[in-house]
Amino acid sequence: MKAVVQERFGPPDSLRLREIDQPATGAGRVLVRVHAAAVNPYDWHMLRGDPYAARLSGGMGLTRPKHRVAGIDAAGVVERVGAGVREFSPGDPVLGFCHGAFAEYASTTAALLVPRPEGLTFEQAAALPMSAVTALRGIRTVGRVRAGQRVLVNGSGGGVGTFAVQIAAALDAEVTRVCGARNTGLVRSLGAAHVLDYAREDFTDGRERYDVVLDLVGNHPLGRLRRVLTPAGVLVAGGGGAPGRVFGAIGAMAKVAAVNAVTRHRLRPILPATPDGPAHEDLLAVTALVGAGQLTPVIGRTFALAGTAEAVRHVEEGHSRGKTVITVP
């Protein structure tokens, strides 16, 4: 099969399209014929082994990538199932977390897959797992958004942000989106009551207050973000960062925890959803929102499998609109 391989840590140009063997389908595992795979900031972090401190955890490998084939979000059709798998059968359309998603075939466990909702293309389905689950956790689980609350999403034009706005709107919150001018029309269509252009308006000036702020960019000091919270407000912090950091998001999350200990506001970190933690119930919740017409994936750009390096570079630059998706013919 064709697969995008990373033999070493490095920039997107280190990815190579190779012919390799299909993954084995052992007990409890499902082999998926991949039709589409989404690109996340997680992918360039794993590709570069960045931040360096994260290599010590063993999740990405110490001196070389733990997973030879890149990618994590996939949508496709079940090719075959291993012993003990009763949830799926060959031919079932699915989406979920699959290590090695940038390939013609990827193997995962049944617990990390859910049926593809009717009406979604494979490209739209592939856009859901990591970004939509992260948004769901940020808005519903960590932020505990309720009807009538004022919610601000900083970084609302990206993958997680476009989902977060829709989820907050589905909970009947009053949503304000911070994004660039080119995304203002898009964000209004997703349910935002108010849209701020970050190049022209500083939402941290304190003139408006919010019950929940979801910061997906990390481009403002915590003190300025706290300025826009109501007295009982919650800051949900995640995302941001550039390549080449020793601690990166790990250091940022530690700072959030430290400040939380000495402030009346609630400051909560949110890390990207990954296949290393429980995800099945959240995947089902996301697809239920899709089925109810309350959540629609936004696809910004698509690339062929051979253009995966370019796709990862596009996401790494930090200005992608909605989700970036790899199509696998």
> Beta-strand level of the residues, as a percent range?
25-35%
> Would you identify the regions where 5 or more consecutive residues have pLDDT less than 50?
244-248
Query: Mind summarizing the main beta sheet?
Result: 7 strands, mixed
In DSSP terms, counting alpha (H) and pi (I) runs of 4 or more, how many helices?
Answer: 9
SSE topology string: EEEHEEEEHHEHEHEEHEHEHEHE
Q: Based on helices, strands and strand pairing, what is the structural class?
A: alpha/beta
User: How does the overall form come out from the CA principal axes?
Assistant: globular
Q: Indicate the percent of residues in helices.
A: 25-40%
Q: Span between N and C termini?
A: 12 Å
Can you walk me through this structure?
With 329 residues, the protein is of the alpha/beta class. It has helices spanning 41-48, 122-126, 129-142, 159-170, 184-189, 222-227, 249-260, 280-291, 308-316, and strands at residues 2-5, 16-19, 29-39, 73-81, 93-97, 105-109, 113-115, 150-154, 174-179, 194-197, 210-215, 229-237, 266-269, 299-304, 323-327. Helix content is 26%, strand content 26%. Helix 3 packs across helix 4 (159-170) and helix 3 (129-142) crosses helix 8 (280-291). The longest helix has 14 residues, at 129-142. The radius of gyration is 19 Å and the shape is globular. It starts with a strand and ends with a strand.
